[in-house]
Write a structure and sequence with these properties.
heterotrimer, A alpha+beta (about 190), B alpha+beta (about 1000), C alpha+beta (about 100), A: about 190 residues, alpha+beta, Gyrase A, domain 2, 5-stranded antiparallel β-sheet, 6 helices, about 35% strand, elongated, C: about 100 residues, Folate-binding fold, two-stranded antiparallel ribbon, 2 helices, globular, binds zinc ion
Chain lengths: ~190, ~1000, ~100
């Protein structure tokens, strides 16, 4: 059995010096994509059983323990959890969902997640995302683009954002965020 | 030296700054622009004009400057066409003049001026049309050398740039009195406000024309108070050196921030703000108009407002002896400013017959000479500037004679003011000609409208045509919120479009309209006589207003002259549309952060670094980079490719196929849905089995292909082409969301969750069986798949082949990709295992006659055309493309069909895309779609689409190689190797 | 550049987040339809200098298709509505009538 930390090593990178905001790769993040009828009581019960979280409102996220559930679309949520927990979340959701018309997939390896934090974190993202991040609530979720890469953004705290994109763009996104977080460029923003 | 003993609101005389111009060292002071510093050093000649190479000096003090363009910086920071008037001086600044050769003072191009009668309007169009070759080889290089603007940089730009998205209720462009007041009002109302100013200072013209008293305070104190109040508001963002370059549809505005032009930049040099504003307020002020008179382009001829700016802001006298030529009261302010600064004013020439009013009286009271109904008839001067003017009476008929001679070294032109209406016009607002005030104003009936159909750009202050500080502030304050202002009232202007305009005095000489493009009054009149009656046509014919200043000074005079020549009203010749950007912006800022490494996202598989470490040469496949081949040592390309092909045919090769798209399709209607998406039947596929599927669009043309696996009763996994996953996933969702929304189907794009490797070659099974695991490779039938583990890693194994060899594809969650890949390579040295790249893959598949979407197809090719009728269901009632395939054009005989081509010379590899010729050699009857040297059958092979090709087996065709050469090739089956498919069935 | 509100996720976003999908309310004919009907479906599109009903997808966002009524010249947006609506809702038609009357 290969070591997990080794398996995810491609996403472990050290940021360059002189950044005006912190940039980290969250390499142990697991993800589960779930589609179905978000308004259905059975769906909510299965999600609760699998994650402890309620179904989030439109463009919001809910949190419980190690899990965060993000609203992705009218019929889709994304679960953030520990990488090793994702298969269990899928199994638990599917078991509880029974015959319902749903889709639950472990997609932990499909995407890369980065955390950008600091007082000017939102300014870093606003260099490439056409989104009013200054007025973006904690827990709010936005699917948009950064530069030309399809990106999801969730504000996890006053000064903290998580950014996710398809894994093949990870190297690009990492470089992009590190350039955008340059201290000089944030000094007058 | 022209620095005045005192004065200069912006400068700090105690801080000297050194800089160079054309290699010569100069000193300025802190607060200077390059323009004011050169003037202070007595430098009047700053450029040569574009067409005639006439000596030119500064005309303005701001961004509308047409003449004083320089090359700024050197080496990799060299940048051409920068306006001196906008360059804030810093220590070590280097500038060189441009548009002169060999030097500014001795310019060979002056010959152009001597021959200027040969250069009328449209000269270039008329002269250089024939012969065409002469343009390219003779005229153009010559013109480029002696004319041309600045020199393009040759080195990569070392600076960085960036974008910033921003959102606000009200964006205010312009930090003069109107902008400050509008911002204050909006800020106090709790709006989210952005206030931007293109210069480095707040206050606009109020800093110069500071004679007004506002709310009981001096102009300066009032400005300071506004700035302090705005800075204290959390809801107001203020940026200096930031120009609102454009106002686009639906409140989208671009702000160009020059962050590092006044110093050696740290961090991004320029920033482009991409703003969404609910309202845009243009407090953009006015630009003074020059007066076209005979000889109005000698150095020393300036806008009156600029003369005043240099005196009052920078403490510099543009001249010691100035003639003011005015059409309005405002010109008197310049005369008074010069007088107060101790400079002589030779005379004030006023176009009006009876100038009266406070400013006129003040001028007379200090002893200045006022000459009513008088203009400038002629200017005498040289490259060192103006020497003398000769007046002309403006109230005489055709018998007019030139009048008095006045010695002077500066002429201040006060031709009236033009509101800067650009932001109103950028996104559809109309402007109207105000005859009384002689200016274009925003048309309140036709404002730019937002997505709700409501007006969203409003002009305030000078931009509306308000002339006095009182009127400016009243227009910015909003209803019932005015501020008390005391300032001089002004009398109506009497515009002059050019002088002398008639009689003998008007003959000969040049009245310049557009300094940068050397367009004269005569050019416009010639254009009018030649039938260019619309402004838009006359402009293109003469190039009026088409230089980098976009006609900020020249357009209105040009329109007036065109109207006058045609005997029409201004409103009837039309006005040109003002297009963004307001002033030029850097190329770098348009790219922003996305240059170099960040130019374009490149998608990498999890094995990317491994590939790179093994000498991979990458090729782009969509946004992906895939290993084209792995180079060993310094081997040639063909050598690597042959080695990799042989490995697959003779041993076992590994291919990183992770880029293949993978889409999960699940639901009770999944089978039914896929029957509609694919041309063949998918609902009949058994769980645990795979089927190759073709996807067409509704035109019946192939758009994608791939292997579909049924994971369970309700769940399918659809593979797509590399780079096709996003498109195919979106395609499926489009049909589910917009056409068959009653189907119970859910999809998910899991392309990157799984890394996928082909393990291909006669030793493939032996290699895989060496791994620890629970998969029965021997028992797995062709087109079957199984889930299990290999060396403890989760895998899904498909028995499919794109090479014709015994082949498996392994999918594993991407986190395991490197471990699994390395484990496979480590398990079979003796079996000859190694990686192969995409070029080997392509040759291998071409040897087998397998198509590639995008090679054998081009958006006009059906499954039948490529010999895959077997994959088109006849049983299904409907699928995407079915009805189209029944259209006459898609069923007709003679369509191009996929065949193989074998060249007569087995060593000759046909060029990709080469055309096959008809028997008479006159027509192309098809083209080569894939072409390679096959190391397996040791000759060249090609696939081609040939008209009626399937019925022409054995026929020899001529294939065009270039204009003169053709080669012979025989039509054959596209399957070149192992036609029975024996090799994969072991 | 347009500013569009996606009716699916409610977001108000700039045009770069969206992908246009051409004219709306084009019915896909039955498999046995005439050549003329099928050609109409494949090729015939309006190109008005007027209100245009069109399809858009929130491509960089929630991924959902929707309909939009937009004036191709003034760029006024009269409303957005669901992708499965067979025709524009009455309120959008009313708004168009009201806005284009004068
Ligand atoms: Zn949306």
């Amino acid at each position: 059995m290969s070591d997990l930390s080794l398996a995810r090593a491609a996403l472990d990178v050290t940021p360059p010096p002189d950044l005006g905001a912190q940039v980290e790769a969250l390499s142990s993040r697991g993800m589960v994509a779930i589609r179905g009828d978000l308004a259905d009581a059975g769906f909510a019960a299965a999600l609760k059983a699998a994650t402890g979280c309620d179904v989030p409102g439109v463009r919001r996220s809910t949190e419980a323990g190690e899990c965060r559930v993000l609203w992705m679309s009218t019929d889709e949520v994304m679960i953030f959890c520990e990488w090793s927990a994702a298969p269990g979340v899928v199994a638990s959701f599917m078991e509880k969902a029974g015959d319902a018309h749903v889709l639950a997939l472990d997609v932990s390896d499909a995407r890369a997640v980065f955390r950008v934090s600091g007082e000017k974190a939102w300014r870093v993202l606003a260099k490439g995302a056409p989104v009013d991040l200054e007025r973006f609530g904690v827990g709010e979720v936005r699917r948009t683009r950064i530069a030309t890469v399809a990106t999801g953004i969730v504000r996890t705290g006053d000064d903290s954002f998580e950014v996710f994109c398809f894994r093949s763009f990870a190297a690009y996104m990492w470089d992009w965020l590190c350039v955008g977080a340059g201290a000089e460029s944030l000094s007058d923003l | 030296m022209s620095r005045l003993a005192s004065g200069g609101a912006l400068i700090d005389r105690d801080t000297a700054i050194s800089f160079s111009f054309d290699g010569k060292k100069f000193r300025g002071v802190k607060g200077d622009t390059l323009a004011s510093a050169l003037l202070a050093n007595g430098v009047k000649l700053v450029n040569r004009s574009y067409k005639y190479h006439r000596p030119r000096g500064l005309v303005t003090s701001g961004p509308e400057e047409p003449n004083a363009l320089v090359n700024l910086g050197s080496g990799n920071r060299h940048e051409p066409n920068i306006r001196m008037t906008q360059i804030e001086l810093f220590d070590g600044l280097e500038a060189t003049s441009q548009n002169r050769w060999p030097s500014l003072r001795a310019d060979v191009g002056v010959l152009n001026a001597a021959a200027s009668r040969l250069y009328p309007a449209g000269f270039y169009y008329k002269t250089f049309i024939h012969p065409r070759a002469a343009w390219k080889h003779v005229f153009e290089p010559m013109i480029r050398r002696i004319a041309g603007l600045g020199r393009a940089p040759t080195e990569a730009d070392p600076d960085t740039y960036e974008h910033q998205y921003a959102f606000c209720d009200t964006l205010i462009a312009g930090g003069g009195p109107a902008g400050l007041l509008a911002a204050r009002r909006a800020g106090e109302a709790g709006e989210r406000v952005m206030l931007v100013e293109q210069t480095e200072r707040w206050g606009g013209r109020l800093l110069v024309d500071d004679d007004a008293e506002i709310e009981g305070k001096s102009a300066r104190d009032w400005i300071a108070e506004q700035v302090a109040a705005l800075e204290a508001m959390d809801n107001v963002v203020m940026r200096l050196r930031t120009c609102c370059s454009a106002a686009f549809d639906h409140g989208y505005a671009l702000l160009y921030e020059r962050r590092g032009d006044h110093t050696i930049p740290t961090g991004p040099r320029h920033r482009l703000w991409r703003v969404r504003a609910k309202q845009i307020v243009g407090a953009t002020g006015m630009i003074e108009r020059p007066i076209p008179f005979y000889g109005n382009d000698f150095p020393g001829v300036m806008l009156a407002s600029a003369v005043r700016d240099y005196v009052k802001l920078w403490g510099v006298a543009p001249g010691q002896d100035t003639v003011v030529y005015t059409t309005n009261d405002d010109g008197y302010r310049t005369a008074l400013a010069l007088h107060e600064a101790g400079c002589r004013v030779a005379a004030i020439l006023d176009s009006r017959a009876d100038p009266v009013g406070m400013l006129v009286e003040q001028a007379k009271a200090v002893g200045l000479i006022v000459m009513p109904s008088t203009g400038i008839g002629k200017v005498m001067g040289s490259k060192d500037g103006v020497r003398e003017v000769q007046t002309v009476p403006l109230d005489k008929g055709d018998d007019v004679e030139l009048g008095k001679r006045l010695q002077c070294d500066c002429i201040a032109m006060a031709g009236g003011w033009s509101p800067v209406v650009h932001l109103y016009s950028h996104s559809g607002g109309k402007v109207v000609w105000d005859t009384a005030q002689a200016m274009y104003r925003p048309d309140p009936e036709n404002p730019p409208r937002d997505r709700f159909g409501e007006p969203y750009v409003r002009l305030v202050g000078g931009a509306t045509g308000a002339l006095t500080t009182h009127d400016v502030l009243a227009s910015a304050a909003g209803e019932g919120a005015g501020v008390p202002v005391h300032c001089a009232a002004e009398q109506p202007a009497s515009p002059v479009w050019f002088t002398p305009s008639h009689g003998k005095a008007a003959l000969g000489g040049k009245h310049f309209l557009d300094y940068q493009n050397d367009v004269t009054v005569a050019d416009i009149r010639l254009a009018a006589r030649e039938g260019f009656e619309s402004v838009e046509h006359a402009k293109r014919y003469t190039t009026l207003g088409m230089a980098t200043d976009q006609g900020k000074l020249s357009n209105i005079n040009g329109h007036a002259i065109l109207a006058d020549t045609l005997g029409k009203a201004m409103a009837d010749v039309g006005t040109t549309t003002f297009r963004p950007p307001y002033t030029p912006i850097s190329m770098g800022v348009i790219a922003g952060q996305e240059k170099g490494l960040l130019f374009k996202p490149v998608r990498q598989t999890a094995l990317h670094d491994w590939h790179a470490g093994q000498g991979a040469e990458f090729e782009p496949v969509g946004d992906w980079r895939r290993p084209y081949r792995y180079q060993k040592g310094s081997e040639a390309r063909a050598h690597s490719i042959t080695r990799e092909i042989k490995r697959v045919r003779e041993a076992v090769g590994l291919l990183d196929a992770s880029t293949l798209g993978k889409i999960i399709v699940r639901g009770p209607d999944a089978g039914k849905f896929l029957d509609l998406m694919y041309t063949n039947m998918m609902s009949s596929l058994k769980p645990g089995k795979c089927r190759y599927g073709l996807m067409c669009n509704d035109n019946g043309f192939l758009m994608d292909d791939g292997v579909v696996a049924r994971l369970d009763e309700q769940t399918f996994l659809c593979h797509t082409t590399s780079g096709g996953s996003d498109r195919v996933h979106a395609w499926m969702e489009e049909w589910l969301q917009t056409e068959w929304f009653d189907l119970k189907v859910l999809t998910a794009n899991v392309t990157e969750q799984w890394s996928q490797f082909a393990v291909a070659g006669p030793n493939a099974r032996a290699l895989l069986e060496r791994m620890e695991g629970d998969i029965d490779f021997a028992g797995l039938p062709f087109m079957g798949f199984a889930d299990g583990t290999l060396n403890g890693m989760p895998v899904r194994v498909f028995r499919i082949s794109f090479s014709g060899e015994l082949s498996y594809e392994l999918a594993t969650p991407t986190s395991y990709a490197v471990s699994l890949w390395e484990a496979l390579l480590g398990a079979g040295d003796d079996l000859g295992v190694g990686p192969y790249g995409t070029e080997a893959l392509h040759v291998l598949r071409a040897e087998k006659g397998f198509i590639v979407i995008g090679d054998e197809t081009d958006g006009t090719v059906t499954p039948h055309d490529v010999g895959m009728s077997w994959a088109v269901s006849k049983k299904k009632e409907d699928f995407i493309g079915k009805r189209a395939m029944e259209r006459s054009d898609l069923t007709r005989a003679g369509r191009k069909q996929l065949v193989g081509l074998l060249t007569e010379d087995p060593k000759f590899v046909l060029p990709d895309g080469a055309h096959a010729l008809s028997a008479d050699g006159k027509r192309a009857i098809g083209h080569v779609t894939s072409t390679y040297h096959s190391p397996t059958i040791k000759r060249s092979i090609a696939m081609a689409l040939i008209e009626g090709g399937v019925d022409r087996m054995g026929e020899t065709l001529e294939i065009g190689i270039d204009r003169k050469t053709t080669v012979k090739a025989v039509i054959a089956s596209p399957v070149f190797y192992d036609k029975e498919g024996a090799r994969q069935n072991v | 550049m347009l500013l569009i509100q996606c009716p699916a996720c409610g977001v108000e976003a700039e045009e770069t987040e969206f992908a246009p999908g051409g004219e709306a309310h084009i019915l896909r004919p039955e498999p046995g339809c005439s050549d003329a009907d099928f050609a109409m479906y494949l090729f015939e599109r309006k190109n008005p200098r007027a209100v245009h009903y069109e399809r858009w997808r929130h491509a960089f966002g929630c991924g959902k298709w929707f309909h939009m009524a937009r004036h191709t010249h003034t760029l006024e947006i009269f409303g957005v509505y669901a992708a499965d609506a067979p025709e524009p809702p009455q309120e959008i038609k009313d708004r168009i009538a009201e806005r284009t009357a004068s």
